Amino acid sequence: MILFGTDVAANINNSLTQKISSLKQNAIIPKLAIIRVGNNQSDLSYERGILKKFSGLGIATQVYEFPENISQSDFDSQFQEINLDAKTHAILLFRPLPKNLSDKFAREKILASKDVDCMGYINTAKLFSGEIRDSGFAPCTPSAVMEILDYYKIDVAGKNVVIIGRSMVAGRPLSMLMLNRNATVTICHSQTQNLAQICSQADILVSAIGKAEFVRREFVNEKMLVIDVGINVNSSGKLCGDVAFDDVKEFVAGITPVPRGVGAVTTSVLAKNLLRACELVNNQV
Fold it and tell me: Each residue of 213-265: pLDDT tens digit?
């Protein structure tokens, strides 16, 4: 079974249409601020996807682009100005920042009510304490994985879930979301020994390491569901995931493709979180 994220995204978008209409009837236009430093190609690709989807949904966006050589003090000052703008309901900061910049100030100062991708310390604490289900915002990419599982009615309770990758963008927060659903979680990384063997025992395998076509046949089993979070370009210049799709697809029970997989859902989750942030600040819930 191919688990298409595009179908999941369409379902989420349909559920958002009425909320957007209700807000606009009250003269409220949901607005996202995108903050980008430099011109990283993966950031630009994600940005284009957001602008296209949000334009179609009727959501306002404003891109703040800063040069890579911006000073730390200037960046922090600009961030805080955006953070305190009453007309901005949510903020998305592309990370990691260039090596000359730290995101520490942004993570400390971002208002939890605008932190729709769980960058700040408050929402991160809620995520790791298990309170994110009741309040706050989980990161969009891990949330997109959970949306796909929910759409296809895949219950993770009691399942052996193996996640390759331990970044704060995907691997670690996803492990918390899985634990909140009573999955048994193993996190693998660059220092993990016998990686393929460990992965091959999973009921659900999630790859989020950013290595093109790294996961191959020896990592999987015929009863496994494979969720590919990676977005890469292979040696042929073709967009691909962390999983060698053609090598694996006939030997698993289900798999997400790249493109039209997790990435397609991520922007819809971002829109969902933005609308919730907008509703909360305007007492529309």
Answer: 999 999 999 999 999 999 888 888 898 999 999 999 999 999 999 999 999 99
Give pLDDT tens digits for 30-71: 999 999 999 988 889 889 999 999 999 999 999 999 999 999
Three-state secondary structure string covering the chain = CECCHHHHHHHHHHHHHHHHHHHHHCCCCCEEEEEEECCCHHHHHHHHHHHHHHHHHCCEEEEEEECCCCCHHHHHHHHHHHHCCCCCCEEEECCCCCCCCCCHHHHHHCCHHHCCCCCCHHHHHHHHHCCCCCCCCCCHHHHHHHHHHHHCCCCCCCCEEEEECCCCCCHHHHHHHHHHCCCEEEEECCCCCCHHHHHCCCCEEEECCCCCCCECHHHCCCCCEEEECCCEECCCCCEECCECHHHHHHHCCEECCCCCCHHHHHHHHHHHHHHHHHHHHCCCC
